[in-house]
Give the backbone structure.
Amino acid sequence: MAAFEPILLRNVGVENSTSLKVYESRGGYRAVRKALKMAPDEVVKEVKKANLRGRGGAGFPAGVKWGFLPKDRTVTLLCVNADESEPPTFSNRVLMENDPHQLIEGTIITAYATQAQTAYIYMRGEFHEQFHILQKAIDEAYAAGYLGKKVFRSDFSVDCYIHRGGGAYVCGEETGLIESLEGKRGWPRIKPPFPAVEGAFHRPTVVNNVETLSCVPHIIERGADWFAGIGPAHSTGPKLFCISGPVNYPGCYEAAMDITMRELIERDGMGGGMLPGKAVKAVFPGGVSMGVLTADELDMKMDFDDPANYGLLGLGTAAAVVVDQDTDIRVVLKNVARFFGTESCGQCTQCREGTAWMYKIATRIANGAGRIEDLDILLETARNMGMMPGLSICGLPDGATYPIETIVKKFRGELEEAIRSQPRGRVEKVLSAAG
Amino acid sequence: MAKIIIDNQEVECRDGISVLQAALEAGFDVPHYCYHPSLSVVASCRLCLMEMKMPHPKTQELVWSPKLVPSCQTPVKDGMEVRFDSEVVQKNVKACMEFLLLNHPLDCPVCDQAGECLLQDYSYRFGNAESRMVDRKISNPKKDIGPKTLMYSDRCILCTRCVRFTEEISGTGELCVVNRGSNNEIDVFPGRSLDNPLQGNVVDLCPVGSLIDKDFLFKQRVWLLESTPSICPGCATGCSIRIDHADNRVYRLKPRYNPKVNDRWICDEGRFGWKYVHDKRRIVSPIVRRGLEQTTPNWAEIPEIIRFRFEEQVREQGADKVAVVLSPFMACEEAFLLIRFIRRVAPMATLVPGPVPLEGDDQHFPVGATGDAVKFTILSEKCPNRRGIELLMKVSGGPALEFDEFVERSGKGEFSAGWIVGGYPKSWVDKGTGKIAGNFELLVVQDIVENDLTAGATIVLPACAWVEREGSFVNAAGLVQPFDRAIDPPDGTLRDGQYLYEIAGYGGLYSQERVREMMAELLPTFSEVYEAPEPPVHAH
């Protein structure tokens, strides 16, 4: 297999890669000049043809999303989703830290394609350094006439603002993001109307992920066919993969979506294998919300389709965290449950109550006071919370239940054994304390 | 009109409403918490989810969609088919009820809402006998969120009806959701207090026992209360209300749905404006004075005494020396009877409309709204029936005087016989007015509590509060709205309508319908009264 030449990460490691000068010297801002000479619809058509699927987690084709905008709209808004909050995902961070102009170029092209005159970059509140890097790049782009009135001396004008979030997972959900952007509580909206019809400030709104938009300049510059030629048929283009946990080289790597989970761990130039003396027990391949793989399931393809064959929700953010054999699966269960227990926005009944209940049960199991029936309650609660098709306003409960269900199902033996070997009387003692 | 199929039954429904509203109007008992017909839809309680037939993505054949959809959020469409009675739908309701009760304190025995609580009702139908959660419950605090309202956060199910009310109806926005996830709580914004003039409605809106009216707190179990439909006399808006009473005592007033007047709301002024009903100083028996002699005759003698004394005055002083003050707190029927009596004994008697209490300016809600955006109005005219009295005076003809003029002229002794009806909930007789009592040879004063007029009157008749009477009020918009009596007047007292009926020369029992028939002959307005439609029985 030919070595994959980085596309999205091509500027990573280059000195001063965040500056406009370096970005341009390496071919930056050529695509946008080309795009501005095309008709907006042609840009949309090209992205559709490239089959660029959303990198935020759901994998919805970006071009199709843009096509939902009403034809008779007068104002369009573009939101760039930089609220990267899925554990353990950091690919957007890498893009913004190292190559902010690539994102800005993608943003301008997308704004032009959708005829948006305002772009909001909704940035996760915890991104401090990244905010300053990106803001500096935006200032540079304004100064160069790439943002603002009549960009690149064309007739197109676009303004770009960074809006910093307050640190809530749910604000990465596109309507939660829009509510938060409007200055409200980040509670996802009921749909319809979909954002493309009525989004931020009651205007047609497009919401795309940082990585998705970073792909756009390359599609325009090198053509849809080139992009579609990378990777499997339904999972085209370059993709960033994160890997963390006890591997030799945790980090963010770029590849086509034809690699397997095992390759991501093992390959040189990627994970580079497990740390000495460590073996894989489990892997969350797509951010925790997609569910878990056992050590026997590592041949799963990291594309948009294969995860479903392993009982997972999807590819998600393609950020894998490896759990080694020395880690108690009960602690993993508890940590996952804690995340969703504290990140549910609390709007819908099932998610608000279910995530908190699962967290309580998982905590008790981790504290050595589990009961076998708790495992069944976890599974039933997961089902009652709604798993594809969901029962709630947004997809958060789907993401909260898949990891719980897959952990309990795939590691039931280990969990039961741990529960059975608890000291006698422990459950009663803990429960009576709970009153 | 759209035709849709709900649980295999064809239902005709109004266009533009939600499936949930259509189902409720057709009598289906669909569980719901967050949905409220007068508030925006948030679809967050997830209890009203339904199955819906949708075209299959491949074959386009109509099949039951695997995804449940919120019926509150789905508009009706002609020909659509939905179901609530299927296993998946019922399972979802059961699951939701389990979730909602996980952290609920289950303190029904000490909760005011018990007996009218949707959490109780639905858990009887869908809940488990025992919680499967063995861990410690989240127990959010009880909060004093305003001068009249308490918030028991641990009972809250986060339907956010109260928050939406303050945003969309009162427009004051005191309430918000704080914290996140299962730690969500409703609270007032820092430094604020739930003190807007409509705040009491949040207690009515709350489907559980979370928002509690301090005034009613621990006063009575709701299943011991009896409800009587009535009209609020607090201002000229004439809101439809319900009087909740037991053992001849009023315990609380609640709004009653009236699409033409108040929708589903009332103001606090009206809500708590009934306290005078149980005032210990109330006049409870008729008093007749002659010189220094004072008697409390039997009610049966009263019509005869009054007729005799008025006829005596007319004989001695002339028919034009008689004046009657009609209070804007009287029901139309009562005013009609009094006019009829006085015109019989003194055809040239002067009719005077009682003073109209005005306070401040009209208040429109949401705050700052104008025109069609106004959803509720508290009028500055603090009486229920000025228009009714005006109508009757107009149709009766004859001499009329404004109240101020009447006071002035009686001060000069121009009238020898008078009848003044009070019945105001607040003290209304100022010094100047009180003085005129001495200038009458015969003065009948009808009032609730004693004042300078009753002290100087020759005949004092106890007036009843509106909860003890029946009749109709004409509101500011000209709507004739009947109200029923809820409780009996204090012992020894007869209802105004009854004694006026007898004084006017009619036998038997007073009923508002009977008197209204007579009124309708004079004034067709009274042939039809407006009674607000009952909302769907399962709508909450």
The longest strand of chain A covers residues 238-244. Residues 150 and 157 of chain A are 5 Å apart (CA to CA). The beta strands of chain A are 77-82, 118-123, 159-164, 205-209, 238-244, 251-256, 280-284, 293-294, 319-324. DSSP finds 17 helices and nine strands in chain A.
